[in-house]
From TrEMBL, chains A, B:
PROSITE patterns: HTH_LYSR. Belongs to the LysR transcriptional regulatory family. It comes from Micromonospora globbae. Gene3D superfamilies: Periplasmic binding protein-like II (3.40.190.10), Winged helix-like DNA-binding domain superfamily/Winged helix DNA-binding domain (1.10.10.10). Residues 221-264, 278-298 are annotated as: Disordered. InterPro entries: LysR_HTH_N, LysR_subst-bd, WH-like_DNA-bd_sf, WH_DNA-bd_sf. This is LysR family transcriptional regulator. Pfam families: HTH_1, LysR_substrate. Keywords: DNA-binding, Transcription, Transcription regulation. Residues 1-41 form the HTH lysR-type domain. Residues 251-264 have a biased composition (Low complexity). Residues 228-238 have a biased composition (Gly residues). The keyword Transcription regulation applies.
DNA sequence: ACTACTTACGTATGTCGTAAAGATT
DNA sequence: AATCTTTACGACATACGTAAGTAGT
């Protein structure tokens, strides 16, 4: 990046950008950018980290007041994480006009806060009473719409696929596909299991459930789909959430667990077995022999 | 409040304040303040709610960069919640010059973020992997320094004081003293027990542990002191936390549970009995007959 | 009539653009 | 030499203060 480039993007001249940076650096008493080539200093990178949430909140505040002044006309804009999309689609039965948009877990609260979306349906793992991440961006209504046991997707010929149910700890050393956008990131799996392991193998960066399951079937790894507790559904203070106080209970959660099998018409996905998983606590991990885990993976 | 008063506080004239408000209202397209008398409108109150965290982050960013530019000289400034204060005092043994300041759980992260404190020791209840509230204000080092079973303080002559240990559900209908600054707020107790109850009785707004226990002894209610898991100790990125990577393990937690009994020299507080409490899960509450709880309370 | 907020206007400060100078590759 | 940033200076916009105007109490 360069001052000239930034100026072009902002509609300013290079001089103005230079003056801004100089003024800010003088104000803070720290050099923020190294020039020629232009790159953030340590202090500059730090400041940048602060800037993003602040700007996000400013945008959220402006959007909130604008919505307060003039309620938005048009269809209800619903966003959902990949595994909650089916539940969101089910909402369309009640709501005639409805816009659906699939995004990241992290992006969803942002979009709702900035009034880019009216309602968000997100899945994920959460303790009974902890707040959803991103919920503190702006005052928003949050409610839990379902709870479901966790499931894992395995290749059909996986040694552990023969069992009806598994413990997460058994899979600590399996070959996982890290698909942070679709299922839980590996880091969270480690936290949930209270154990090390869950080595980083193939990463699936997309948000496509079908694609991920295809990768599992081919044998790139054993991947777990979310479950345990239904994702909260953050909504705007006025709007969607109020109009749908009681959506189908468990809607989001059913879709989440079903996305692997039932989401495509309840016929088993080719080459994929879906098994329920009990989330291991640290104690459970310590007392359970992890020998069998090593046999796993295609 | 009045425009004139605000102007006096800001060092401006009434006119300037009037112009600012008018410009902001024109920008947002909403009336923010009702005049004569001056009071926030609904939109104004909403905007105010957004303003506080934004201003806090701005202050935190400025403080962080200032600290980065010129590390603060002088003694280590440590803050602590009332029940973690004893552990903080124990730090003084290692650190020759040390400033100690007792505050609220909510205030502590703010003070650390704005570089008003170098290190914060706070107690409280938390699930194994959830982040501490206030920790997202600024990038700060957080670590858990102890874990301890929960305890409840009862009057000596309380019917339940005869038992060596109690379940939180048993106390759902007891007469509690709500001391949100010292122990867990009643709302959190409800969440932890997964049950209704915990009726609001006397409120103890202070931060004085001894005073609270005196109130318990006199019989104003049955009050629980914190426990379960040690409070995390948020520290600045550079400074205290790095210099004390391994504080006495369990320091904060020991002090927290001990604040009722051991904190005053390990002699039992006059008229107060301290009993350990198991935190009830929703399931435990449903299956446990709550009849006995009704007998409790002095 | 008194008090408090609003509006009008003059001044000061700040911001941006143009243009020239300086620095780096 | 070419490219990019900094500095200098003039034009414009913004912000504040003074003072007059207006609206509640």
């Amino acid at each position: 990046m360069s001052f000239s480039g930034a100026a072009a993007e902002l509609g300013y001249t290079q001089s103005a950008v230079s003056q801004h940076i100089a003024a800010l650096e003088a104000d803070l008493g720290v050099r923020l950018l190294e020039r020629r080539p232009v790159a953030p200093t340590v202090a500059g990178a730090r400041l940048l980290a602060y800037a993003e949430p602040i700007l996000l909140r400013l945008a959220a505040a402006r959007a909130d007041l604008a919505r307060l002044a003039a309620p938005r006309p048009g269809p209800l804009r619903v966003g959902a994480t990949p595994l909650a999309a089916a539940a969101a689609a089910r909402l369309a039965a009640d709501e005639p006009a409805l816009t659906l948009c699939v995004t990241t877990r992290a992006d969803l609260p942002r979009r709702v806060a900035t009034d880019d979306l009216d309602l968000g349906l997100l899945d994920g793992y959460a303790a009974p009473n902890d707040p959803l991440p991103g919920t503190d961006l702006a005052p928003m209504d949050v409610s839990v719409h379902g709870e479901q046991p966790a499931v894992v997707a395995l290749p059909r010929d996986h040694p552990l696929a023969a069992r009806p149910a598994l413990a997460l700890a058994d899979l600590a050393l399996a070959r996982w596909i890290d698909a942070p956008q679709v299922a839980a990131p590996l880091a969270q799996l480690r936290a949930l299991a209270g154990a090390e392991g869950f080595p980083a193998g193939v990463t699936y960066p997309g948000t496509d459930v079908a694609g991920l399951l295809a990768a599992v079937a081919v044998g790139h790894g054993a991947r777990r789909a979310p479950g345990r507790r239904g994702g909260g559904a953050p909504g705007p203070r006025r709007g969607g959430a109020d109009r749908h106080p009681r959506g189908a209970p468990g809607g989001a959660a059913e879709a989440r667990a079903g996305a692997a099998v039932a989401g495509t018409g309840r016929r088993p996905w080719t080459g994929v077995a879906v098994r329920s998983v009990t989330l291991g606590t640290p104690a459970a991990v310590d007392h359970r022999p992890p020998a069998e885990a090593r046999t796993g993976t295609p």
